Amino acid sequence: MKTLVAFPSTAIFGQEAARAFDEVGGLEAYFTSFAHCRSGPLARILPVVPRGRSILTQLERRAITALPDDKIETRPLLEILYTAAASGGARTRTVDRIWDYLSKDFTRAAARRIARGGVGAVYAYEYSALEAFEAADRLGIAKILDFPSLNSRQFETLQRAQKEIYPELRTPDDAYFEALFETRQARRDAEMRAADVIITNSSLTRASHIAGGADPKKTFAVPYGAPAPLEAVTAAPDPHGPLRVIWAGTFSIRKAAHLFAEAWRGNMDPAHARADIFGAIGLPDRLWKPAPEGMTFHGSVVRPVLFDAFQASDVLMFPTLSDGFGMVVTEAFARGLPVITTDQAGASDLVRHGVNGLIIEAGNAQAIADALCWCLDNRTALAGMREAALETARGWQWSEYRSALRGAVAEGLRRCGQETDPQDWRN
C-alpha cells in the first residue's frame, strides 16, 4: 500500500514522516508547496550574483534532505506569494488570507493527486487535509491525520487569558482572527472526524485533541526524534562567570517571551547572568523595550550557528504557553544542553525534572524566575545535567520516531478494520 504524504511545509518532521514510509517501500510521494532543490539551477546561479548567497541561505530552509528527489512533488506558486508577502511587510490580514487560500488550494490539489491513482493511503496535516480526505473517502483509501499542535481551542483560551493580564499584547488584528476562529476550528474538527488514524507528537497533544473530541482509540502519540547528537558532552561554561541562558525561536506571546522578560528584569543581575536571544521578535515593543539588562538579541540565524551557541550555553529557556512538541528541546539535548520548559510543552515527555532539565508551570513569571535562580545557585548540578541531556537525545533519534510512526499507523488502521501489509509499515 503506497502512501501520499501531503504537507505544504518542508519542516523536518514532515520529511521524516514521509521517510518512515519510504524506507520500507511504502511512499508514493511527498507532496508539498515549494521545495528548494540543491541540484537545481537556482543553487548554481545564486552564489555568483549580488546578494545571491544570502538568498540561498534562506532557500536552504526549504530544502528537503530526507527524501530522494524522485519522491518529491511540488505546487510552489502560492507558497512563493505567501513568503513574499510575509517578508515584504504586507498587512497581517493580507498574509493570513494568502495562507488560508494556500492551505485550501493545496488540499484540493492533493485531492486531484489522489484521484490519479497509485495511492492506498493519504497522510495529511491539520487544516490542509479536508478535501484530500473527501477524495480518499470516494476512493475507499485510508486517511491519516497529523496534529503537530495542541488543540486550537486550548491555545485560544490560554492566549485570551494572557491578554486579560497583559492588555499590551492585544493588537488591532485580534477582532479579525477572533471572527474567523470558529469557522477554522470547524474545519479542523471535520478533518478529525474524517480521519481513520490520528497521529500527534506528544502525550500532551494527544490529550488536548481527545479533550476536543478525538476518538482515543484512533489517536496516537509519537514524539519527534532528536537530530544527530554530539559524540561526547562538551564542558559547561566557566562556573565562576555569568550564567549563560539561551533562547531559540520566535520571541512571542506563544513562547511566553513577555513573562521571560518580566522574570529577567526583576531577578537577574547582568553581572551574574546573560541571555542570548536567537529568533524573530513577535512581541510589542512596549513589553520588552528597552531590552532588559544582560539580554542580547541576535535575530534569526542558521542552524550551525545556533547549535554552536547551544554548546556555549548553560541552559535553554523555553517557557512556552502552548507547544505540541517544541523541537528546540531535542535540538538542545543533542548538543548536551539542559532545558527549562513548561508543563504545556509536548517535549516535556522527554524532560526528567532535575535530571536533564527543569519543568515549570506555564504562564507563570515567578516560576521562570525561580528556575533561573536555581540555575544560578546550583551551577555544578546544572553542569551535571549535560550528560543526561545528551543521553536523552541518543535514546530517541529520528530512526526511532519513524519505526514508532509506522507501528502506530498500522495499529490504528487495524483498529478501524483496515489490515495492512506489514512490509509497508514495520521494520
Task: Give the SSE layout.
Layout (H helix, E strand, L loop, with lengths): L2 E4 L5 H11 L4 E6 L8 H5 L6 H8 L12 E3 L2 H11 L4 H24 L5 E5 L4 H10 L2 E6 L4 H14 L8 H21 L2 E4 L2 H9 L7 E3 L21 E6 L8 H11 L5 E6 L16 E5 L3 H9 L3 E4 L8 H8 L4 E4 L14 E4 L4 H13 L1 H17 L2 H18 L6 H4 L2
Keywords: Transferase
GO molecular function: glycosyltransferase activity
InterPro entries: Glycosyltransferase_grp1
CATH domain class name of the largest domain:
Alpha Beta
- The radius of gyration computed from the alpha-carbon positions, rounded to a whole number of angstroms, is 22 Å
Q: Name the overall outline.
A: globular
Beginning-to-end CA distance, first to last residue: 15 Å
Going by CATH, the homologous superfamily of the largest domain would be Glycogen Phosphorylase B
Task: Give the helix tally.
Answer: 16
Mean pLDDT: 94
For the biggest β-sheet, the strand order reads: 3-2-1-4-5-6-7
InterPro entries: Glycosyltransferase_grp1 (IPR050194)
GO molecular function: glycosyltransferase activity
Organism: Silicimonas algicola
Protein name: Glycosyl transferase family 1
